[in-house]
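Hi W.,

Here's what went into the run:
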Amino acid sequence: MSILRSSFVHAILLLVIAILIFKYGIHPPIPQSLFLLYLIITLFGIFLFVSSSEETWKSFLSPIHATLYDPRFRGVRAVIFIVLPVLATYLVYLRVQPKIEPPAELRTIHPAPPDTISFRNGTIKLQGLGNPLRGDKEHFQEHVNRGKVIYFKNCFYCHGDGLNGEGHFAEGLNPKPANFTDVGTIAQLQESYLFWRIAKGGPNLPTEATPWNSAMPAWENYLTADEIWSVILYLYEATGYQPRKWEQDQ
Amino acid sequence: MRKINRKVFFIFSLLFFVILLGSAFAQQPAGDQPMEYRAFPYIGSRQIMWIAAQLHLMFAAFILGVPIFAVIVEFIGFYARDPMQRLRYDKLAKEFTKLLLIAFSATAIWGAILTFLFITLYPKFFNYLSNIFSPTLWIYPFLFFGETFTLYLYWYGWEWLQGEKKKFHLALGVLLNLFGIAVLFITDAWTTFMMSPSGIDEKGNLVSLWKAINNPLWMPLNIHRLIANIVFGGSIAAAYAAFRFLSSKTEEERAHYDWMGYIGNFIAIQAFIVLPFAGYWFGREIYAFDQQLGITMMGGFLSWLWIIQAILIGIIFLASNYYLWIGMERIPGAERYRLYTRLILLVLVVGTLVWATPHSLVASLEEARKMGGAHHPLLGVLGVMSAKNTAVNIMILSTFLSFLFYRRGNKISRVSWAKTGVVIQGLILFLAAFIVVFYGVRGYFVEAIVRIGYSVYQVLAVLSAIILTMILDIFMLRNAEEIGPIRWGKMPPRSQYALFLVAITFTWLMGLMGYARSAIRQHWHVYGVMRDTSPEAFSPTLGFAADMVSICVLLFFALVFFIFWIGHLGEKTKILEERVEEEVEGITTAKLKGGYTA
Amino acid sequence: MNGSNQFIGLKVVLFTLIVIGIFTYYANSIPQLESRPPQELSLSKENLTPEALVQAGKDIFYGKGTCALCHAIGEKGPRAPDLAGIGARAATREPGKSAKEYLIESLINPTAYVVEGYPPIMPAVNKPPISLNPTEILAVVAFLESLGGTVDVKPSDIPSETSATPTSVAPAAPASLKLPGNPEAGKAVAEVCVQCHIIPGVGKPRRPRAPDLSAIGAIATPDYIIESILDPDAKVVAGYPAGLMPKDFGEKLKAQEFMDLVAFLMTLKGGSPESSEPGKGAQPAEGQKKEGVQETKASSLPVPEAKPAETEKKEGAETQGSKNPTTGSEQNKSQ
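Here's what came out:
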């Protein structure tokens, strides 16, 4: 009997294929809990497959039967009877060993901005606010250049020279610095939102953005409003994104 | 048998007495401070009520489900042309009824226990409900009495009402079912009133009894339970047959119980195919009655329960299909369809995978980081109703296809248009599958309100495809040529374990769904009207519920096992056995000799 | 099958146990959630700070109020609008309506303003099965205002209608709290007041120099009355000069007399013809702040909300005044 005709081999092959699909075929990878669920259902299906006809069932059982009873396979039998309990022990160990892992948490990446913020000694109303430098067409490139200088003096250490959040310090931070080239960040936000986040940094994140572990400093202590606006201008110019506009109504 | 009979009557009179006493007792105010709750020692009120209610329900479901298909089987026998078939079906119907007879007393006992516990542990709540429903509480025992009485006539009159008088026996069977359904409907009114109270004013006083009975969820639950009872009765009867099959010693016995298991499973799965639709209707009515209730059910703390439900239903579908596929081994000619059954298996596994995909999942921080958020894109696609409805409908179609293959396993159509017929059947099924997938995919691109409407189209497509294909099939296989007879009894033991698996899973699922139905009320006795102020007002976790359900299921099976064992003991009385066999053989030979005319 | 049917019973029992064991294990291995019955929120005066309110409101939002089942903050809910920034947005939704008013009305009368594109499915939060009490609604409004706006909600902003009548079969509210004073004794104390105020049943001043108090119980909260006696100039009714009322009643009256007086004033629910004269009735002064819109707002603190059923009924019969804000707002809307 060819080895390829054995149901046992079929079952193993199917299982391997299923594992490969679930592990590597789905991107991004699915969590362990779901992987196990999928695997159990698939295993059940494979079992039904091999046992749904007498032929395949016999062919599936024969290698098992041979390993268990055939005197020729005494060595294999001994190995299996040692390896299986050890494997089980190891799995149990993996399951019960204490892990140093923070509990899963839900974190809002883009919390709702406040209506007004305090900036230095005054207050700034964020609602409906646009970049004041954007209207200044005459000196537009000047502002962008100034922003670029400020960016490379202050921001690039974390956010990187590619504006992709891969700066020198990025690996040491959790959550990682924002990647401005991602469509999910500045491309989705108003400029006033950026102003708020730059000015207030990690320390002033609102409640829903807990835990407050962002390492971003509050730049209002180091930069003037104009400087922040020009950095924002630079970010949009360099990435090529357009800031989100305020809706006219509501 | 006689002894059991006397016991049953005793229990019924006891039950009747208890209910009357209960309503009288409950209406009596006990001093100035009416007792609201009592605590049950050691086990706790919630747990003991849970067990009593669940076991009562399981036995009740059994004794309501079994007569339905016992009578159906009897009817099939009545209309069968072949005298041998006639006798076989009649014997089967009688055997089902025998199971029923013994389970009846257990139902009554648990009903009495439940009533006792209810009165003593939740006096205020019981008082309230009996204030609302007192007339039904008076009718109920009479209906139950009527059902019992009819059952005894049905059982003991079996041999008496043969031949010419068979029609009366069938009428008795129908009457028995009517009583059973009436009893079910009355209890459903109490249950659904707790979920969707109607017919009362703002203060909770009764305005209209009929409205209180006919509350928005009454009919959906009636239909859902009725169908589920058939499934349950069928699967338990099949499991009983499987057990008898495995422990039988003669070929004859084996053949008979193989066949009985097949019939039980067949009826169970036929009913099971429509059960999701009934459940869907029930769910929609819950949403329509109160959004809050619906959202608690699907999106709140119960959301994970539906994942388990999906897995369990997937197991039931897979196991019962598997039973059919193995059954095709004993049908000469059925090996023609083996390749198709493999494909059906694949479809069913994929369907279960899709259905069991949760919308939000358990992920560690590390995994969440890799996924880039708490939501996995795959889950966003597969975890929503569109995908799940599609999966269920496709699974139902596949199961139906399995049945078609089984049906025509040893048959070759003799009609001239057989080829065209198969093509048309294929087209119909393909079209239904296409409609299901089409609306499933389209559901992602439309608003929620439109999407909900789509599942109706899916259901309609599947149901009409099943009906059309079946009608075609009946005509195609009329007077079909047989390759060879089904070799009843030639089943490997593992097929019988599939029947056990179906029965266990369905019973467990029933317990779990009972928890879901009850838990969506959360901290209310009567939703929005009467709050649960006891320390146990909270709804327990799914894990706790699973433990309780497992205890109930194990208790139920232990009792069923015991009951069947008692039934078996009765059978062991040699004289009776021989006499019956002689009788049967006598009739058979007489009929085979052509002495039988209808 | 040769001999294999010997231990059938045992095998089947084992099989059953294994299957049920797997089901039970799986059900126990997934997230375990318990649904606890909601707690009644009662805040005492001293912890009625905005922060405490916001926190309490947040708990209700995610818990008892079941708001989070449909609403999300920061993302679009499938059944209900995103509430991020609602504190700021609420003020702009309806012309002439502050964020506070808009939010309160949306909670109590959800179909009043339905955001476009969403079905009108929201239940009134003050009715069963949610049945938030006024304090809880207050907290929720405070929480919502904190999302992008400023918390300016006060106990007196919640209309007393929101006190859901507990149905007869529902258990009574935790403990029925009454005002500590005795209204009968308070009537005697009030003889001092009729020097300037009109108080039916006590007397009429020769020269009415102060607001009519004949309906004060229907339109003011105990808090407001207490404050107005202890610090008369804190809120002055429109059209009356400040500084007229003596500031030393708090020192002159004994504690018991003081409470009796407040309790008595709270029993005055109007009914005399003079009191209905617009502009001259006793108005809580904060009504004035709202661009001179004359509002007769029946308001009640959490304390009187938990009155025994009889008084509640009575109040229900006389909430004519309290209906005004709602009808007024409906007119507003139709404009």
